[in-house]
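Continuing the batch. This is chain 6 of the set; chains 1 through 5 are on the previous pages. Same settings as before, nothing changed between runs. Recording input and output for traceability.
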Amino acid sequence: MKQHFPLKNAQQEKRIYRSRVLISMGIVIFFMLLLVSRYAYLQLFNFESFTTASDENRIRLQPLPPARGYIYDRNGVLLADNYPVFTATLSRADVQDIDQTLERLKPILELTEEDLERFQTRIKTARKTERVSIKLNLNENDIARFSEVKYQFPGVNIETQMTRYYPHGDLFAHVIGYVGRINDKELKAIDKDLYAGTNLIGKIGVEKSYEKLLHGVPGNESVEADAFGNVLRHLGRKDPVRGNDLFLSLDYGLQVVASEQLAGRRGAIVAMNPKTGEILALVSSPSFNPNLFVTGISTKDYSYLRDNLDQPLYNRAVQGTYPPGSTIKPMFGLGGLHYGLVDWDTAISDPGYFTLPGDSHKFRDWKKSGHGVVNLHKSQVVS
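Output for chain 6:
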């Protein structure tokens, strides 16, 4: 049986095809006009705002922390120095998942839990454009391992920073003190602009008392960076101003002699120029190494210093309270002579004790029966 197929209508098919082409072209032209109009709007009306946003993404103002002023003794012996260390830093603006990045960096930089805790503390108070230290004082192996995989960590870089160093270790620890990481309480009190990019601040001793003098003024650098945070161009720079140097009245040689006399035993020695009041030596024993505190002391080291029965952190020369004993008596005698209250022949009767006015408590003499009638000279002899 034969099958019959209808003949195709060529004219009708051409009309259908032409209609579909025109509709498709119309849709394409519509979307092209939409894109062109949007592009024109952005270029003509929002050009400045988007240019500013683009510049902010690639042009950054990086703080340059100042070097701390040096500390010298009276003869120019260096007591507090600065030296460069390699530091791994992270830019918050260039890292999307900070926790994941730190987890991947742990085996590469050998990050400890204390490193991570200190980083989390620092990043909470850091500005979005600020580079936050991950680990200080990197060694050659840390740097070599990271350099091989740096391309995998956009926003993470190795930089050179200046840190504090005390060349004489524990010799001047209690008088010079030390610097340490800025904590939350200090962060609220300081001028954040003055400490931009700075991690360290004076904690105790001279370092704390003369913080404003020693700190210096930070600078800044304008750089162009790529999407990975790598610096492409240096656009401008304002150099930081180093802190002022400080010359103390302390004498290094005399400090060494005083420390050797105590030889680690508990005690304190203070040497003063009686004419000027200058402190020539100030030793508290036992002492501690202040360098442990600069980059963050470990829990183990701090526990040892805190729990040590000899209390090396305790400044016996300044904080200790000790009965003066008979060594104070010549000073009172000389004071009486100076102001004309007594002379060498002034005599008193010593019953073996002394009571303050209005107080019945008796302060006993070493000789229970007392020394009888004594003048100024005899009182010093039998003291």
